[in-house]
TrEMBL record, chains A, B:
Name recorded for this polypeptide: Ferri-bacillibactin esterase BesA
UniProt GO molecular function: hydrolase activity, acting on ester bonds
UniProt similarity note: Belongs to the esterase D family.
Keyword Hydrolase applies: yes
SUPFAM superfamilies to which the protein is assigned, alphabetical: alpha/beta-Hydrolases, TPR-like
One Pfam family this sequence matches: Esterase
Ranges for the TPR repeats: 349-382
InterPro entries in UniProt: AB_hydrolase_fold, Esterase-like, Siderophore_Hydrolase_D, TPR-like_helical_dom_sf, TPR_rpt
Keywords, ordered alphabetically: Hydrolase, TPR repeat
Length: 389, 389
């Protein structure tokens, strides 16, 4: 027995060693199971946290969440968009959490009405019509679960393609406040004789879409099948009649026809364009800030106004820009930025420490000492430099 | 001792359980260390294998490799491009292995000549000029290592941005046969008074670029710093004078100006466009194949001609299209496709089994039995259906 145990533990030891030191996996997220009482079934989520999520230097940050439909197809695309547009000094979107909702019964969950279609001689989509139920699950169970499990800031985006786009349009009209932004790619508006278009038109004089944002993309569709459903025509009708009316009800929207993409390829380029549209103007005028640091706050106020949601400058980003000011020898500007960080993140030892380090550079040793002491009172492991002792 | 061992093994057991069942990581690749004798240092690679790489049903497949510079910035983008354009019936590129070469000393490795630049009052790039050495490492050590370690088919792409683009252009002119395609984004042609442009012009009447392909992107660059180096002007000069001349020496190339992207954002959209250009026309006319299955081989012959590299239709894809033929009730076409798979992959038990299953559907039981027996002779675990016993 002892012999066997020894072998087993050795085995695990080597697995462990191998796992951690040799085959260093590149991990982009995790899968987790989640029971829904409303749907009476288990659902699987694919979650990807932004790189700074585990950053132990800054105060714990809070993030927007993108809820992504059909993650089996689109999860890697969304991760790429986030990684390509964040990090460094130039950020074209805030870092965000991506939550992919894996399908159990796609046509059931994504379609607002029951209808069936004959495809290659077979009746398909027979379980359709469950969108109301699925939306209830998202609103009452999933969002609260995600908000409990992760540090979220309350800004939510829903991203869906094809049937997923149909569902996102349904969510927009049924629960407009459930998400701040809706990203909709080449949606199946043709579904059930354009039922979504018809029901949307009924709301055009009453719906309140203040503060909501929609990005709608359309692909080049010339296949016979798409023609049969008048796929593109139904998207254009929705855009021309529904979205024009919804804009009068407060919706900020952008429609884009991607002539080089088809239904199968549109997701990645259009998702990239969608976040650039939603967060248009968020990228800081980095080179001007060392000269006029107040620009940073003005900039965030403007962006907050335009997306109708208050966003604070992230501590890590402001620190990087302060470092850039130091490089440009604009120490007074760096000081202003680090003071802003302390104001926004009063419990971050890191912000005090960074300012302490700057004061050493500025030869303001008494101030430096005070900042280091404040940093230590928040996080006792921080060392006070010899110079200040 | 026995007690401790028991505890340790329990610990590992729970780690193992937890690792595999609860926190299911989403893994896109692995990091590995590799010693270079030429560079006399360790290099880290980030490797991502395509989804079908571990597919145990098909015969082991062989893949093109993309060598990617600056993977810390661009690895997720390339994975997204691959995942978005492969899988399913419509494939806009072949599945490929991505090998990211992590930087040790970026300006040393990427620059063909030694030169230094004054930036914010400091001298930078002092170690520059090591591109010849780095290219030797790639050609003599890295490519052989990758070809030994993974199932590669000999088609290679080099993808570089900025300084990485400068290096890719250097590789193109110094070792044109090292890669089949070169993907170059907003390259630093300004480096050392356009030394790459000057050295390229000297080769314009002698270099042999038959069968080589280049995609060159340029971003909108209006910052003062880029102006100072005449960044865009140098790219345009290279395009107008060098690439025009190189085209006469056999180079197939495409230049694209992405007016909505800047130096920092160009990589993802331009890399997406680059593979669509390199493999232009590879996507099969899926809906026509059930009617005329010979189209499939004709199509691959044409694509092979246009990329100057013979590519075989992947077994898994052909099987999927055969399934689609069955759905369309074109059984004779499905049979032709599965026979093609047996011809191309004579050691794949799966191809025989798939054909056996088709023959059952066609009620050709004697043929079905033969195919199942052939499948079993290659892979004894395959069960012969009751019907055929």
């Amino acid at each position: 027995m002892r012999h066997i145990l020894k072998r087993v533990s050795l085995l695990f030891f080597f697995y462990f060693l191998f796992h951690n030191f040799f085959a260093q996996d590149i991990i982009v997220g995790h899968k987790l199971d989640f029971h829904s009482t409303i749907l009476d079934e288990n659902r699987t989520l694919w979650v990807s946290l932004p790189q700074s999520y585990q950053d132990s230097l800054c105060a714990p940050a809070f993030y927007p969440v993108m809820y992504l439909l059909d993650p089996a197809f689109h999860f890697h695309s969304m991760i790429a968009v986030r990684e390509a547009l964040t990090g460094g000094l130039y950020n074209y979107m805030p870092e965000m959490i991506i939550v992919g909702i894996v399908n159990n019964d796609r046509s059931r969950d994504m379609t607002p009405t029951n209808s069936s279609v004959i495809h290659s001689g077979k009746k398909i989509h027979e379980t359709s019509g469950g969108a109301a139920h699925f939306l209830q699950f998202i609103e009452k169970e999933l969002i609260p679960f995600v908000d409990r499990s992760y540090r979220t800031n309350g800004y939510r985006i829903l991203n869906g393609h094809s049937f997923g786009g149909l569902f996102a349009l349904y969510a927009l009209q049924e629960r407009p406040t459930c998400f701040n932004s809706y990203v909709v790619h080449d949606p199946s508006i043709w579904w059930d004789d354009r039922s979504i278009y018809k029901s949307a038109l009924l709301l055009k004089d009453t719906i309140d879409l203040q503060g909501r944002c929609l990005y709608l993309s359309m692909a080049y569709n010339q296949t016979k099948e798409k023609d049969r459903y008048r796929h593109s025509q139904s998207i254009l009708a929705y855009k021309n009649e529904v979205l024009e009316a919804f804009a009068n009800r407060g919706l900020r929207y952008h429609f884009e026809y991607l002539s080089k993409e088809n239904h199968g390829t549109i997701f990645l380029p259009a998702s990239y364009n969608s976040v650039r549209y939603i967060y248009d103007g968020i990228c800081l005028p980095v080179k001007e800030i060392p000269i006029r640091p107040a620009l940073l706050m003005e900039h965030y106020r403007q962006v907050s106004d335009s997306i109708c949601f208050k966003i604070e400058p992230p501590e890590g980003l402001v620190k990087k820009i302060a470092d850039y000011c130091v490089l440009r020898e604009e120490l007074a500007s760096a000081e202003k930025l680090l003071l802003l960080n302390i104001y926004n993140y009063p419990n971050s030892a890191y912000s005090y420490q960074a300012l302490g380090e700057l004061y050493i550079k500025m030869n303001k040793l008494q101030l430096a000492k005070e900042k280091f002491q404040e940093a230590r009172s928040l996080y006792p492991q921080i060392d006070i430099p010899e110079l200040l002792k």
